[in-house]
């Protein structure tokens, strides 16, 4: 589980307070690539592309200047990650497994440029309908599922206070629902709405901030769900995952919310099936190359990005290693497709 990669011993180290000599010994970025710099400059300013987390030794030469231990990257890698020409956001997946404090969020914020924005996952404590074992098996119903006060106290408030204007998107990723809940989706939609209405407005502190809901059940893809999100000032997170239909079948949700921002998390290639994380991890190895290229998804996503940014709304897109084999290389490929689309107009 992600939390094992970020134990209490692996807390982020605030960069500004570290002595110059110590910083020099920390994680360093890969050498500057002029072609990547030019590519980044060709993208719409409102587009922020990044990856899911950053603690992967296999990214040596792509993001890091050399191979570093995973624990070192967990603690010290964010500052180097944020110096990559393309990366202006990152999905802070750690927050899903354990709520983070104001101080932890602030420590992350101190390590990135002023223009960097975080995509943060809400804790599973309130976003998962089940209490799960270490292997992910549901053990019993979660009494705190979609609790409005919990969402406010353990997520929205500390993230907003710690990250401040660097909040990009606060994402409630709802794990797959058990059958009894799937049988009454309208009730679950009402409960999601009650939770969202309890959250503060992000704009006074984070002008670029967006609240989004990501689901792992296609039963949510209804006009009623879109209507609730609009009424609550939230948006639909485009979740590119094998548990969900392909991107084309999710786009009606975005059309129902148009015009508005884009939040997209591309997590898992469809070839691996709904439960294929371990298979993808085995096949993709060090995550240093594209194994399963998906040009169709790149093209469809680039079209949505262009429309969103043309309408002057922010677009947050994060990619996981298990989307195609290497999140940094997938990000470069997506950026190239977006650039080429803009040039062709």
For the structure shown, list the relevant keywords.
single chain, 345 residues, alpha/beta, two-stranded antiparallel ribbon, 10 strands, globular, DUF72, UPF0759_sf
Output the CATH homologous superfamily: Protein of unknown function UPF0759
CATH topology: TIM Barrel
Give the CA-based shape: globular
| Helix fraction by DSSP (H/I, runs of at least 4) | 40-55%
- Our count of domains comes out at 1
Low-confidence region ranges: 1-9, 17-23
Helix-strand pattern: HHEHEHHEHEEHEHHEHEHEHHEHH
User: How do the strands line up in the largest sheet?
Assistant: 1-2-3-6-7-8-9-10
Strand tally, please? 10
Q: Supply the CATH architecture.
A: Alpha-Beta Barrel
Task: Return the average pLDDT rounded to an integer.
Answer: 92
In DSSP terms, counting alpha (H) and pi (I) runs of 4 or more, how many helices? 15
